[in-house]
User: Fold FAD-binding PCMH-type domain-containing protein from Apiosordaria backusii.
Amino acid sequence: MIFSRGWLPGLAACLLSCSPLLTSASSSHKQHCKAVPGTPDWPSPASWARLNESLAGRLLQPPPPGAVCHPGQPTYDAAECPNLISNWSSLDYHHTNPISTYWNNWNNDTCLPYQGYPCSGQGYPLFVINATTARHVQLGVQFAKKHNIRLVVKNTGHDFIGRSNAPNSLSIWVHNLKDWKYHGSGFRPKKCKSTLPGTYLTAGSGSQMWDIYTRLDEINQTIVGGGGKTVALGGYLTGGGHSLLSPHYGMAADQVVEIEAVTPSGEIITANSCQNQDLFWAILGGGGSTFAIPTTFTLKTHPTPRLSHLSVFVLTPLANTSSVVFPLQAYITSQFPSLSASGLSGYAFLFPPSTPINLIPGTNASVGGFFMSCVIFQSPPSNTTSLPFPNDILSLWTPILSNLSSTFDLTTNNFTILTLPTSYPSFLAYFTDHHDTTPAGNNIIPYGRLLDGPALTQNLTKLSETYQKVSLGPDGGTGENETQPGGVIAAHLVSGPGVHNHPNQFKTSVLPAWRKTYLHIGIQLRPAQTHQTHRRPHRRLVVHPLRRQRALEASGRPSLPRRKCTYV
Ligand SMILES: Cc1cc2nc3c(=O)[nH]c(=O)nc-3n(C[C@H](O)[C@H](O)[C@H](O)COP(=O)(O)OP(=O)(O)OC[C@H]3O[C@@H](n4cnc5c(N)ncnc54)[C@H](O)[C@@H]3O)c2cc1C
Assistant:
């Protein structure tokens, strides 16, 4: 079945109104709100015990991970606490814990591993199913539906907008769904008549980038995958998934040919281009856990490319350089569409003046300007074992850098231009050196924009002003305006011809803007943590109604009218 974009509203409306899980609280049950402990419909201990039995003991009640640092908590452990604190900012810790998430504000800072601050499990799920099969996922969905419980899916806990965590919920932890089957000579999706040519991988939705890259590298293959070692297929593919390989091969969602998933009604289904096509389309781009819980994905693999890599530095340590830094950033990024047409992809960072980061090799200075780590592939990969010649990537940058020198006053403004070329024999070799090492364990509110060719090339004055406003805030960094400035802009050149022209583009619900985009820009606002500054972080959780009622009674204030639902 071919889907047009105009079909989306109909599908969305149907899924919203027809999904038994989504409507269970409103139409099939009289009660509007989800069950929480203390309300009559919350399952009895015996019901939870029966669920645990049906799962062969895979039901967990994990304590909040930060509790090991809080005397008075059952899991307090003075010896373990320093280890936890030192791992709290590492991406590697949170993905192995059944409830921990990377960003504190999505647990409402309810149990940070620091003494002197409160610790409770209120910001976390109450029960967790450690799923290793689709049947475990199915039992969880059916139980949550039957008992009107809030359901959440956690994989690694990377989610930038907190969707892998919810209080008072039953969480399905899909991290251990690790199926693996490589199809070296084509793949025939179930109920389809023909075999798709090429190479494919069927992998559990808990499979993570580093494991996939490593295992596929043994047979000289790779996937269109993400830049973080621990990112898992579940959230990555349902979000569309961009990659260094996307400008060549399309979005990650474009590579998928079959999904096994548990639907909101608790059925285990197969979705592909021959059955459940609507769900197949909706899952691939519709966002994590929106339409179903995928347990495996079958996706295309590609021969691992040999790469030329270049680090490009155009940086100044001088503070008062806004009039040069932002126009310079606009000029360089205006070259991205033509660089993309030449096969370049990569990750750039736009630094406002005086960014406290030491990037100029051999100096100790805060900087402003531009940095990019970029690659070109030898595609199709050649059979020779010699490394690609890094000068081919350098030659793409030579005219841009000489134009910079003649257009901007780089000498007076003390700019350093530096290019460091390297070569890699495989994607894994490149990734080992250049994976994303963003620290976790803090507060985050991200936002981003997709920039197409006209946005990048038609009005460089406006583009420069935009970068300045985003980086410094609308008041130019004076602090008069309350809007928080974004600081460093991550500017990822991860789209291009392979995304724009992908034949599967109408088979997925990936945001259509990607089909024209070159640059994905992202900014991470970092609201202060309450334990450090007493400023309130972004609040998402709502106080339990019974607790709120008691607090109002104790304060002698009149009760508020009962809210329709416990959670927003
Ligand atoms: C260091 C780092 C690097 C990144 N690099 C890239 C990149 O290069 N390209 C890119 O596109 N993105 C990248 N991302 C973003 C990443 O793809 C998303 O955060 C993604 O949602 C993570 O998915 P997850 O399953 O690992 O995380 P989780 O937080 O566990 O899940 C994310 C969302 O998906 C849902 N979900 C996860 N698995 C399932 C499942 N099996 N069934 C149903 N719902 C599920 C969760 O409920 C949640 O809503 C990066 C993120 C980080 C932190």
